[in-house]
């Protein structure tokens, strides 16, 4: 080989090194962007999962509360405590309609049932007692229908869409 061939080969290899070093920075930027996008998606999915877990826990508290009323036929102090603790902060996780539904519909019906049960104690047999029992029955039927419709009411908020 002569000197001219060696210098051409060295120049060609130097050109390749220059090309590769010029492409290295954009390639690093592209890979960095891909990693950043994947990290963004992972964090978004993690947030959705955490929100689902919190929403589902509150949904379960409501369902358990209604189930305890249906099982016991009355509102117990323990069930009330669990319900209030389990649904605290519901306004921050669900929209206003769900928060009002939980506060007004379910809680008010449960309190009305508790009051009627308290009034019933010691009440003599008669027309007033019959009305009280009928009102309790109406509230229990309403709470039962709320329990059956609970899944439909909350299904929109308990969807994991990734």
- How far the N terminus sits from the C terminus, by CA atoms, comes to 63 Å
Element order, helices and strands?
HHHHH
Number of structurally distinct domains: 1
Number of strands: 0
Q: Total helix count?
A: 5
- Mean pLDDT over the full residue set: 87
Q: What percent of the residues sit in helical stretches (DSSP H or I)?
A: over 70%
Q: Based on CA inertia axes, which overall geometry fits? A: rod-shaped
Largest sheet: none
Beta percentage is under 5%
Radius of gyration: 33 Å
Low-confidence stretches: none
- Helix/strand-derived category reads mainly alpha
Ordered list of secondary-structure elements with their pairings:
Layout: H1 3-72, H2 77-86, H3 90-93, H4 96-120, H5 127-154
Explain what the structure shows.
By secondary structure, the chain is mainly α. The chain has one domain (3-154). It has helices spanning 3-72, 77-86, 90-93, 96-120, 127-154. Helix 1 (3-72) runs antiparallel to helix 2 (77-86) and helix 1 runs antiparallel to helix 5. The two termini are 63 Å apart. The mean pLDDT is 87.
